[in-house]
Structures are given as structure tokens and as C-alpha cells.
Amino acid sequence: MVEMLLEAASGMKSVEGCDLYVVNIPDNDPNSIWVTEIWSDPSTHQASLSLDEAKVLIQRARPLIAGIEQIKLRPQGGKGI
User: Fold this and answer.
1) Handedness of CA 54, 60, 61, 66 (dihedral sign)
2) Considering the entire predicted model, what is its pTM?
3) pLDDT tens per residue across span 20-64
4) How far apart are the first and last CA of the chain?
5) What is the C-alpha to C-alpha distance for residues 39 and 32, in angstroms, rounded to an integer?
6) CA 32, CA 29: separation in Å to the nearest integer?
7) CA distance linking residue 20 with residue 39, whole number of Å
8) What 3-state class would DSSP assign to 30?
9) Does the CA dihedral 58-23-45-53 come out positive or negative?
10) Which residue pairs, CB below 8 angstroms and at least 24 apart, start in 49-57?
11) Nearest to 19 by CA among 43, 5, 39
């Protein structure tokens, strides 16, 4: 699963509006994966999901996904943004 998400991260390098896409594994839960994403606006994120590469990766990953918890934040600034 991590490999697929890193493949997605690599593809995001050329996607306009994707400011950050980082794949994380929590120290206290090695069976979980967190993906941290920052998008210029919700519509650019939604548009990225319609890209052929994204659709293929989503289909490949779907059987491995036990659940998704989405936490929406509004970054205010800082290093890396």
C-alpha cells in the first residue's frame, strides 16, 4: 500500500494545485498509513481524482484499504507551504 501511495505522490509532482502530498507511517501504529495533502482549493483536489493515473491507483489500492478517516484542516502558513 505504501508503494502505491508513493507512486501517487510521485504523480502529484506535476499536478497543478497540489502543494503537499506526504505518505506517513505512525510510530505507534505501523499498520496504519497517513497521507498528508495540501491543495490550493477543493476543486483542484477533486479534479486530480479524475486523472486516469489516479483512477488506476485507486482501483489497485481499494482491496487493501480497511477504512478512511478524513481530517480537514485549514493551513495558516509555515515552512513547506
Assistant:
1) positive
2) 0.84
3) 999 999 999 999 999 999 999 999 999 999 999 999 999 999 999
4) 26
5) 23
6) 6
7) 7
8) coil
9) negative
10) 51/11, 51/15, 53/11, 54/8, 54/11, 57/4, 57/7, 57/8, 57/11
11) 39
